[in-house]
Q: What sequence folds into this?
C-alpha cells in the first residue's frame, strides 16, 4: 500500500467511525446533524488527543527552561493540530499528485531533492513549493516507500531520485533536504553511495540520536528511530566524517523527537528554532529560509572532497 492510499483510508475511516459511533449511541430518533457533527469532530479528537499526549511526554521528559505557560502550550498544540489535520485529511490523501515545478537543464542552477518523513508523502512540501522561496532552484520530491520499510533500504529510493534529478538538470551535485525520517534516509544514502553527488544536506527535526517515541511506533522504520536502537548507533559510527556538510535544524518545542536536542549533529551547522512543533516546522517560513540560504551557499562554495561510501 502506498502512503497516499493509506492516508486516503485514514481520512475516510476516522470520520466514518465517528459517525457510526454517534449513530449507535444517540437515542432514537437519531438527528442526522449530530451524526455529521460527530464525523467532523472525530479526526480532531483523534489528532488532538495524540498531540496532547506527545506534548505532555515531551514536557515531562525534556522540559523547557523556563517552562512554557499554558497559553503558549495551547498555541503550539493548536498550530500543530491545524497542520496535522490539513496534512493527513486533505493534502496528503487527495492532493499529492500535483505537478512539480518544471526542471531547467542548467548545471549552474542549484538542484534540491525534498524528502518527507514517516507516514508523509511529497504533499508535505506543497506549502514550501507554493511559497515561491525555491523558485530560483531546480526542485524535485520523493516518497519514502514501502511505508513501514527499513530505513537502510530507502538509500536506494533516494539514490534513484538523485540520479533522476541530476540527469534532468545537468547538475553535478544536489542539495538533500529531509524532514524527520527523511533526514535519516539522507544519511543511509550517503553511507551506501558516498557524497560525490551531494553539495549539502539540510535536515529538519530528524531524530539523529533517536526519539523515545520510536518504541511506540509500528513498522521496522519506527523501531529503528527509537533512542539507542542498533540502527541509530550504526549510522552514528559510519558517517561522522560527513557531518560538516550538514545543516541540522531542531525545534525546542518538538512533540515527536524527544529529547529535543536529537536533531542536532555535532560538527554540523546547528540551527534551533523556537515556538513550532514537529510537523508545523514544514510550514514555518524560518525553516524555508534556511533551506533556500543553504542551497545558495552550497552553489557558491568550492566542491568539497568526496567521501567514499561506508559500506
A:
Amino acid at each position: 500500500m502506498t502512503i497516499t492510499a493509506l492516508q486516503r483510508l485514514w481520512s475516510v475511516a476516522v470520520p466514518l467511525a465517528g459517525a457510526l459511533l454517534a449513530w449507535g449511541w444517540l437515542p432514537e430518533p437519531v438527528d442526522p446533524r449530530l451524526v455529521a457533527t460527530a464525523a467532523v469532530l472525530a479526526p480532531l479528537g483523534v489528532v488532538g488527543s495524540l498531540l496532547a499526549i506527545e506534548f505532555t511526554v515531551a514536557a515531562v521528559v525534556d522540559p523547557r527552561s523556563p517552562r512554557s505557560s499554558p497559553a503558549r502550550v495551547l498555541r503550539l498544540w493548536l498550530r500543530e493540530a491545524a497542520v496535522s489535520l490539513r496534512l493527513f485529511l486533505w493534502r496528503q490523501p487527495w492532493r499529492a499528485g500535483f505537478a512539480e515545478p518544471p526542471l531547467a537543464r542548467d548545471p549552474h542552477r542549484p538542484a534540491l531533492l525534498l524528502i518527507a518523513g514517516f507516514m508523509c508523502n511529497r504533499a508535505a512540501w506543497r506549502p514550501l513549493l507554493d511559497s515561491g522561496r525555491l523558485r530560483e532552484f531546480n526542485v524535485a520530491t520523493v516518497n519514502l516507500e514501502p511505508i513501514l520499510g527499513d530505513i537502510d533500504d530507502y538509500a536506494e529510493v533516494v539514490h534513484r531520485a538523485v540520479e533522476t534529478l541530476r540527469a534532468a538538470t545537468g547538475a553535478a551535485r544536489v542539495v538533500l533536504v529531509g524532514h524527520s525520517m527523511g533526514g535519516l534516509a539522507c544519511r543511509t544514502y550517503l553511507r551506501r553511495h558516498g557524497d560525490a553527488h551531494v553539495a549539502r544536506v539540510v535536515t529538519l527535526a530528524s531524530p539523529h540520536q533517536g526519539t523515545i517515541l520510536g518504541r511506540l511506533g509500528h513498522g521496522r522504520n519506527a523501531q529503528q528511530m527509537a533512542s539507542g536502537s542498533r540502527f541509530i548507533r550504526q549510522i552514528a559510527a559510519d558517517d561522522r566524517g560527513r557531518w560538516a556538510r550538514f545543516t541540522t535544524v531542531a525545534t525546542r518545542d518538538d512533540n515527536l523527537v524527544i529529547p529535543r536536542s536529537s536533531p542536532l549533529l555535532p560538527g554540523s551547522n546547528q540551527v534551533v528554532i523556537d515556538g513550532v512543533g514537529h510537523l508545523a516546522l514544514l510550514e514555518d517560513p524560518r525553516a524555508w529560509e534556511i533551506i533556500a540560504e543553504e542551497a545558495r551557499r552550497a552553489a557558491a562554495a568550492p566542491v568539497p572532497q568526496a567521501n567514499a561510501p561506508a559500506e
Q: What stands out?
A: The longest strand covers residues 198-204. Residues 32-61 form the longest helix (30 residues). Residues 101 and 130 are 10 Å apart (CA to CA).
